[in-house]
Amino acid sequence: MARAKPKMCIVNPEFVADIAPLTGSQTEIMRCIGISWNSWIKICAGLPIRLSVGRRLRDRLLAEAPESAGLRGRFSHIASGIEIRRRAREVNFLLPANTTDETSRSMPQLRSVGRALKMLSAKRSGLEVGVHP
């Protein structure tokens, strides 16, 4: 029996700059916001991540919102956790990712946050994206 493909999402690229100060090193990112370095690289590149990872990231970030100047500015006026989660959905923190098996296989191998950010910048500029291993 074939295993079901996990649901995927993309973290809204507008939030990447707000999240970056909270990430720290490869070991700190798991402790602070509960995602792996590889997931962070995908987020920086605007690539899909598993929906469960995106939800965990969103929930932990919103709990840490007072610590981050960027997130504090977006959510400081909201007091309750339920309201913060609702507001995060309203501002589209997680975007749907329409991936097929073909697009999953064609995703570039990214090994650094720098390459991921260059890829995202190129995507936004409408340039052809080419990442070399």
Task: Explain what the structure shows.
With 133 residues, the chain is mainly α. The chain has one domain. The chain has eight helices and three strands. Strands 2-1-3 form a three-stranded antiparallel sheet. The longest helix is centred in the middle third of the chain and has 13 residues, at 51-63. It is globular.
Keywords summarizing the entry:
three-stranded antiparallel β-sheet; 133 residues; 7% strand; mainly alpha; 8 helices
Task: Report a brief summary of the structure.
This protein has 133 residues and is mostly helical. The protein is 56% helix and 7% strand.
SS-derived structural category: mainly alpha
What overall form do the CA principal axes indicate? Answer: globular
Strand order of the largest sheet: 2-1-3
Quaternary organisation of the protein chains:
single chain
According to DSSP, the number of beta strands is 3
> Which percent range describes the beta-strand content?
5-15%
- How many separate domains? 1
Distance between the termini: 34 Å
Strand and helix order:
EHHHEHHHEHH
Rg (CA only):
15 Å
Q: What can be said about the biggest beta sheet? A: 3 strands, antiparallel
Number of helices: 8
Overall residue-averaged pLDDT value:
76
Q: Provide the helix percentage.
A: 55-70%
Instruction: List low-confidence stretches.
Output: none
